[in-house]
Amino acid sequence: MKNLWPEQFEESTTDSLNTMLEEQAKLLITITKGIVSAEVIELGEMSKLHEASGSPDFAYRFNLVGKFINDYKFQVMIFWHDITFYPAGVKFDGQLAKELQIDQTKNRASVSNALEAEVLVTRVLGSERVRSVVGSILRLSK
Description:
There is one protein chain. This protein is an alpha+beta fold and about 140 residues long. The protein has one domain. The chain contains 5 helices and 5 strands. A 5-stranded antiparallel β-sheet has the order 1-2-3-4-5. Strand 2 and strand 3 (about 75-80) form a beta hairpin. The termini are far apart.
């Protein structure tokens, strides 16, 4: 039988939501002089089924963490996607969803591509809710 595969494959150059948030996490440490950090945590199978919509291949939680506040993490969002990164689903903290005017019944949104994801992440990180949480973590860490 002849080879039916293409002669070559090209690696995707699209940034995933995961990649964007990991980069922003690094920047937050610099901005807050190490007092507030952010983390992207991959969800286990049970959490993925419970938190995400459908049966995604990958699901993550994006948290804010205070260096001097033991065991406290503020969950900003949960996001999920299949192997191709987009579309990606996003579930927000209720107050954040309200501020961003996301569907209040499910606190969920969807992004179709990297540009939409960047716009959404910009709105989330610049939101009053996130600014307030980071400010509170900074204050409690003194």
